[in-house]
Structure formats: structure tokens, C-alpha cells
Write a structure and sequence with these properties.
It is a single chain. The chain has 98 residues and is α+β, with helices and mostly antiparallel strands. The chain has helices at 3-14, 20-47, and strands at residues 63-72, 78-87. The protein has a domain at 3-47. Helix content is 41%, strand content 20%. The protein has a two-stranded antiparallel ribbon with strand order 1-2. A hairpin with a 5-residue loop joins strand 1 and strand 2. Helix 1 crosses helix 2 (20-47). The radius of gyration is 27 Å and the shape is flat. It starts with a helix and ends in an 11-residue tail after the last strand. The model has no long low-confidence stretch (mean pLDDT 87).
């Protein structure tokens, strides 16, 4: 919404007279604070010990599989149901089965 329109809404709701320019300055100031806070949070996560910070290297091979199938919905519309699977490869289940 334009700053002038936002000033009108604030005036109506809170009975505070503001100009569009004042709203712009308030938004800019709060935006800079939000950006600084987010940057500090990101820096804290990266500086934290495992597992919050930098992750150890992953497996040599990571398999990512996806598939979809067309299904009917209750409204008689067709839609695609999707499924995804991420794994590191087959594991032995028994002596001869993978």
C-alpha cells in the first residue's frame, strides 16, 4: 500500500496524524532494524557448534527420487499426487536381500 494511504489508515485507526513521508521513514527505520536482527541471527547460527552451525560433509552419494501419479479428487478433478524419497543407497536387510 502506498505510504500516503498507510498514513490515512493509521490516522483513522489510531487517531495519529502522520504524513506519507513520515510513514516511509518509520518503515525504512524498522526495516533496517529487522535486517540487522536477521543478519545477527544468521551469524549466530553459523557460529554455533554442530548441529546448528555448519554441517559436516554429507555422504559420497545421495539418491533423490521423485514420482507422481494422476489421481481423482472428490470433486471429480484429476490432480497429480507426488512423492519424494531421499536416501544414501540400499542397505542389507538379510544375508542376501538388499
Amino acid at each position: 500500500m502506498p505510504y500516503a494511504q498507510a498514513a490515512e489508515v493509521v490516522s483513522e485507526l489510531l487517531n495519529i496524524k502522520l504524513s506519507g513521508r513520515q510513514v516511509e521513514h518509520i518503515v525504512d527505520r524498522q526495516g533496517q532494524r529487522a535486517i540487522a536482527q536477521r543478519d545477527a541471527e544468521v551469524a549466530a547460527v553459523w557460529a554455533a557448534p554442530e548441529p546448528l552451525g555448519k554441517q559436516p560433509p554429507g555422504p559420497e552419494i545421495l539418491y533423490i527420487e521423485a514420482d507422481g501419479a494422476w489421481i481423482n479428487s472428490r470433486e471429480q478433478l484429476e490432480m497429480e499426487g507426488k512423492v519424494g524419497l531421499v536416501h544414501q543407497g540400499p542397505e542389507k536387510v538379510g544375508r542376501e536381500r538388499m
